[in-house]
Amino acid sequence: MCVLNGRIDVQKDNFTYISGRGKSVVDYICVPHDVLEQLVSFEVITTCSIVEQSNLFSLLGERSKVPDHSVLTTEFKTNCTYSTKSQVPQECVENKRYKLKSIPNDLFASDLSKIALQSIITQIERTRKTQTHIDEIYSKLCDIIIDEMNPTF
Q1: What Rg do the C-alpha atoms of the chain give, in angstroms?
Q2: Which end of the chain is more exposed for a tag (fewer CB within 10 A), N or C?
Q3: What does the CA dihedral 133, 136, 141, 147 come to, rounded to 10 degrees?
Q4: Helix 131-149 vs helix 111-126: angle between axes, to the nearest 10 degrees?
Q5: Tens-digit pLDDT profile for the chain (153 aa)?
Q6: Does Oxidoreductase count among this protein's keywords (predicted)?
Q7: In degrees rounded to 5, what are phi and psi of residue 39?
Q8: Which string of b and e fits 84-113 if b means at least 16 CB within 10 Å?
Q9: Distance CA 44, CA 23 (A)
């Protein structure tokens, strides 16, 4: 294994942790030596620069602050081929946004939603299975929340 940080372009290499207490490199991408030939790029992008370049300041709350860890990106050449004619499922294209600051007080007030939530809570309390099972429970919880929010938001 080898570390990609500092290997490609010094201009795109940066500290991965930047705070008021100082700067350091604490996040790394490690890959097997035999894939270095396919490495195209490696870049450390500070979250502050992402916020500035994308003008995301309005999305930060009054008490929020920009994360102190950077984003590490890398690109590799591959021998894979794919078709550009494939279509993205409609459910992936449409991302509905909810106004979470205006959640009504009667959200989850119906008996059906209370039963569904209680069922999820019971499943969580009793689960001792694999991560896949936990992911399934989480997915059900998300479905319940979205079903409840769709008619009211």
Answers
A1: 22
A2: N
A3: -160
A4: 170
A5: 888 887 777 778 888 888 888 888 888 888 888 888 888 888 888 888 888 888 887 777 777 888 888 898 988 888 766 665 555 555 554 566 777 777 777 777 888 888 888 888 888 777 766 778 888 888 888 888 888 877 655
A6: yes
A7: -70, 125
A8: eeeeeeeeeeeeeeeeeeeeeeeeeeeeee
A9: 13
pTM score, whole prediction: 0.45
Tokens matching residue 11: 């201009």
The token duo for 122 is: 């019971």
Q: How far apart are CA 12 and CA 10, in angstroms?
A: 5
Q: Residue 24 is encoded by which pair of tokens?
A: 């350091």
Cα 43 from Cα 87, distance rounded (Å): 30
